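User: We ran a pulldown and think these components assemble together. Before we commit to crystallization trials, I'd like a predicted model of the whole complex to look at. Sequences follow.
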Amino acid sequence: MEKKIAIIGAGISGLLACKHILEKGFSPIVFEARSGIGGVWSQTIESTKLQIPKKMYQFSDFAWPPSVTETFPDDEQVMEYIKAYAVHFNILPRIRFNCKVTCIDYVVPGNEDFPSWDLWGGIGWPFSPTGRWNVTVQDARDPAAPVEVYQLDFVILCIGKYSDLPNIPDFPLNSGPEVFNGKVLHSMDYAAMANDCAAELVTNKRVTIIGFQKSAVDIAAEVAERNGVDHPCTLIFRTVHWIVPDYFIALTFKSLNRFTEFMVHKPDQGFFIWLLVILLSPLLWIFSKLVEAYLKRKQPLKKYNMVPEHGFLKQISSCMFTVLPANFYDKVEEGSLVLKKSESFKFCKNGLVIDSEETPIATDIVIFATGYKSDEKLKNIFQTSYFQKCITESLAPFYRECIHPHIPQLAILGYADSPAFLYTTEMRSKWLAHFLAGKFKLPTIGEMEADVKKWEKCMKYYANESYKRSCISVLLQIYCNDQICKDMGFNPRRKKWLLAELFAPYCPDDYKYLCWQT
Ligand SMILES: Cc1cc2nc3c(=O)[nH]c(=O)nc-3n(C[C@H](O)[C@H](O)[C@H](O)COP(=O)(O)OP(=O)(O)OC[C@H]3O[C@@H](n4cnc5c(N)ncnc54)[C@H](O)[C@@H]3O)c2cc1C
Ligand SMILES: NC(=O)c1ccc[n+]([C@@H]2O[C@H](COP(=O)([O-])OP(=O)(O)OC[C@H]3O[C@@H](n4cnc5c(N)ncnc54)[C@H](OP(=O)(O)O)[C@@H]3O)[C@@H](O)[C@H]2O)c1
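Assistant: Here's a predicted model for the assembly, 518 residues in total across the polymer chains.
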């Protein structure tokens, strides 16, 4: 009997999952809460561009059109590219728009004690003979309408790590937004506004933005550009991060090859590899220090007390790549952008009070660019506390970055952070499609847990407390891809020559033919 598969979400992850599963002969249903595809790319601020070169943000079997000549395409070009992909691979008819999945529940008949299984789903294959997921779907346009419940053999969660559930800090009583006379919103709400409405909202207003990652610096640069020195924009943050020029990201990607991976500890390394890493890793340290010195020379970091306390290596190992908006420090220099570092802050009637200053920062609008509650969003979709607990207690990352050892017949795509998100997720989609097609079996639950623990240790070594961002693929992208290729039964060495194998960077193009070699 044909297996029923649901994909939840039609952002990049959902589209990738759908394309690769269709190719294996399945007929998935995609539930999408919004009225269109593209997820985060469908609601961005005006100045949004790809942060990485388009060659690294490319579907392996669907190149960017020749009309896109820019190395870093803008949000509209990215959306056009995503739409063209969905049309080309006939994904759109599979999608049910305005269908929000409110919860999913795993049901096994009788008294089967699935938490005690040794093998995933009881058998280690994707489809258990007995277990099913009940997926409850609500009409997103009419939440009062009766819900529909679908019985499915496999669920792929592609609900997005950076969308829908904003992270807004908690404040003690009488110190939060409730005492403030101005307007408070999250970067997600600002991005969702039409460009002219967003411009109208901030023009000639005193705007304060909280955070110092991509959303924060982009919005700050946009507001400072619009309002100039008459109404300077203030950026309040607790951690200074290394933010780099765009050409620098392109250069970093060019230097990530097999040779550089010899400098990085791996979860399964033997003595010889360990020794090699010990001998070569000083090069990685030197690279990190050189980058720091370069950035300190290029940007007035010392002048504005903006030298991060952590090293550049930790920054990239934590997957915190942020490209510096154009003329960012020029705006600081001219006074249209004011930078204020503060561990904490509170609201007052007319604005915000930060640690080091008694006088409030007078403000009309506060924008929280403080990220998202990704884990809570993932947890909330499960009906039972057993699976919710699996998510809250889960070690980052999942097995092969998409399978939770204790959640059967379900995969999660798009929760593995990566500087080249599309590339990373496409590799996992190919792996997942092969798994669903029965090309390989999963190891035992115990073995998967042990693997996850090893990765966790490895990530903690490089990223310390930031390891939860689940970013195993920056310094070990090729190593991870090798594991995926081996599971699927393909040769992981994709280059023609030994020197290229060692020193040339890998990109999505190298894995173009994986899905056809069945
Ligand atoms: C502004 C911005 C720019 C970015 N730029 C880059 C970049 O340059 N390089 C890079 O590598 N990454 C970038 N990223 C990271 C980005 O998150 C990924 O590249 C990618 O687009 C995420 O895709 P996704 O499908 O996993 O998630 P999303 O795009 O968040 O899509 C999730 C989809 O699931 C739907 N959904 C959620 N819950 C439900 C539900 N319960 N029922 C039904 N549908 C649901 C949502 O409506 C949404 O359409 C950027 C992110 C943002 C916010
Ligand atoms: N290509 C693009 O143009 C683009 C644009 C936007 C976003 N993105 C991507 O989207 C993802 C999300 O980015 P994001 O910037 O929205 O979120 P983010 O990377 O999670 O950054 C959140 C920021 O908020 C701060 N923060 C969180 N909680 C706080 C608190 N309680 N008090 C004060 N500050 C707090 C964090 O500070 P700490 O560092 O101190 O924790 C950090 O500076 C990233 O992958 C990013 O690369 C890309």
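The two ends are 22 Å apart (CA to CA). That may be worth checking against your pulldown data before setting up trials.

User: Thanks, that helps.
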